[in-house]
Amino acid sequence: MRLRNIPGSREAIAESQYVIHEEETRAGSWHEIFENDHPIYIEIGMGKGQFLMELARRNPDINYVGIEKYSSVLIRALEKMEEEETPLSNICFIRMDAEDIVKVFAKNEVDRIYLNFSDPWPKDRHAKRRLTSKEFMARYDQILVPDGQVEFKTDNRGLFDYSLEAIPEAGWEIEMHTFDLHHSEYAEGNVMTEYETKFSGEGK
Ligand code: SAM
Questions:
Q1: How confident is the model at residue 179 (pLDDT cuts 50, 70, 90)?
Q2: Cβ–ligand 1 contact at 199 (below 6 Å)
Q3: Residue 10: what pLDDT?
Q4: Which positions are catalytic?
Q5: How far is CA 130 from CA 61, 176, 187, in A?
């Protein structure tokens, strides 16, 4: 991934009505933040927000929280939010490293977690940073409802093969998987992310 510092992005994020700040004081209060009891779905590493914003448009009865580590990326999602014709009231964002996710959501507060085109961290010594590592799966366990789900898409075969082993080893059940989502029975209703649009457009 290539990142570039965007001057003013930190300030714009600090002032944005779409960003939740002091996130570590919010655990247990997400339904109050959204002012309803609707389920809470989060995306970790949401990038510029294309996927989550489309879900928010389609599903007004679900609350969405997008988590992104870098200001220079999150700012692009905020720009898109400003362009929405009808403002979306069921989505907000946090700029944070997901390593601290258990400080931000309480037990049973999250219904579903999306991981899309997560950074592969190919070196063995960085395996703990992969968002499907046993360390991250244990964090998800702490915030998800008992029948909560994680949905994961990637174009990276190494990360996918690793995840097929790491997830059951972490005590999770894989309900379904496919090596070719776009030509599978799950293609219908699939919402594309920015990376997915780009890679599938290149025929990958
Ligand atoms: N999900 C988007 C998509 O499919 O288009 C973006 C994919 S991009 C390859 C991965 C994104 O995850 C980057 O924006 C990166 O900054 C973010 N990210 C990686 N590790 C993260 C972490 N530990 N916490 C929060 N965001 C993270």
A1: very high
A2: no
A3: 86
A4: 119
A5: 31, 20, 25
